[in-house]
Design brief:
The chain is of the alpha/beta class and about 500 residues long. The chain contains 18 helices and twelve strands.
Length: about 500
Amino acid sequence: MNYNSETKKEYEEGLSLDTVLMYAKKILDKWFAILLVAVLFALAGFAVAVLNYRDHYSSQIMLIASNKSSTLTAAVQSQSDINASVSLAESFKYVFTTTQLSSKVAETCGYDITADEVKSHVTVKSVDETSIIYLIVTTENPDVSYSIAKAYEDNYAEYIEKAFPNTALKVIDPALKATKPNADRSKLLYPMIGFLLGALISCVFIIVAVIFKDTIKNSDDVTNKLGMKVIGVIGRVQMKYKKGEPKPTGILITDKRSGFGFIESHKLIRTKIEHAASNQGYKAIVVTSTMENEGKTTSATNIAISLAQNGKSVLLIDADLRKPSVAKTLGFSANDDEGICGIVSGNKTLRESIKYSEKYQLFVLVSNKAVENSTEVLSSHKMEEIIEAAKKEFDYVIIDTAPCGIIADASILAAYADTIVLVVKQDCASARRIKRAIDNFENSGTEIIGCIFNNTEGTMAKSKIYGKKYGYGYGYGYGYGYGYGKSKSKSKNK
């Protein structure tokens, strides 16, 4: 059964948002590093401002423009004359920076200065909706600034008259010699620019790193990079928790706090599994992932519960012998249970080892006792007999295994099962590593029914549990205890 076109149709609308939210989360996760870089850039900007600072002095002239002769008073000007004066003020600004006037100012200011240097020291601006013009001369010497401004006062009228006959531009506030340097805004401006630049560069660097990181970023990547079908997309969940309520041990579809989207997504996965099972005769299903913390145990548990809710008899087996966590996810103790190991060793029978959970309407075969020789236990002939016997007794057998990209346990169990569900967490394992893990299943001859794309940023309910955030695939399962290949004694020292 091919879900490729169906899956793309179902999720392509949220794909762009998922990707954007993923980038946003990566940036938020690195907020401290971004802040640190931004502060360093701000300090660098402050240092540049201090090292390059020079005192500057300004002399300013205020002028008023008119389209009448200077002998007329403003009181007798018509409204049209005033409007014309406002328009002229904008035109007059450009006369002050003409080469002819600038050259004349350079000759008469009393300092050895060129016309181009005069232009570089002069700023001309008009006040909006008025006929007032300001000419500001700024240099590092107050005497030079004042002399250039006075030279403008003495020479501008001739050039204004030439450019705009029958107009007037009158000085109403003559230039004064500056008695103190201008306020230094560079010590504030440069750090602000540096801070923003540092933050921007950091964000761009993070986004580029994510883009070039060969991970699975959206559901299309599952198809394009891995060549696999997507049977479900699970959004990231952060459960709400009220004071006085029991602390959740796992994120389950039986808990409404996990959210409508989370529950419905697993029902959709259940439907696709049932449809495939009816066509292909699947009963024993291995659920695994490439790496730790991808949410495989949560997925396996919720698949089993959803099938049981639909009236099926389901056995959930915890076959992750090095890190059993199904019992913890379901919230009950299994300290006295030996699970698979007890059956393989002959201490108990399959029927004696299986427990029934009335709460979940689910049969379970679990243990909380980790073992070192899991590969030897699972590869025994007895293990194959357990799976075959379970397939005869139950409609479905869901098997939670160790990560297939770390140890060979999942590949061993796949040979006994009918199909495989691979859990892929967004932006976690590299596509190359996932492909290698998939290749490990080839020798088993068991087909991978599809992929659950997990922990995506497209559907997220923000909340807090005892002040700490718990996300699907985070905080439960592989985030605790000792790692694969490490001894149990080492874990106690951590």
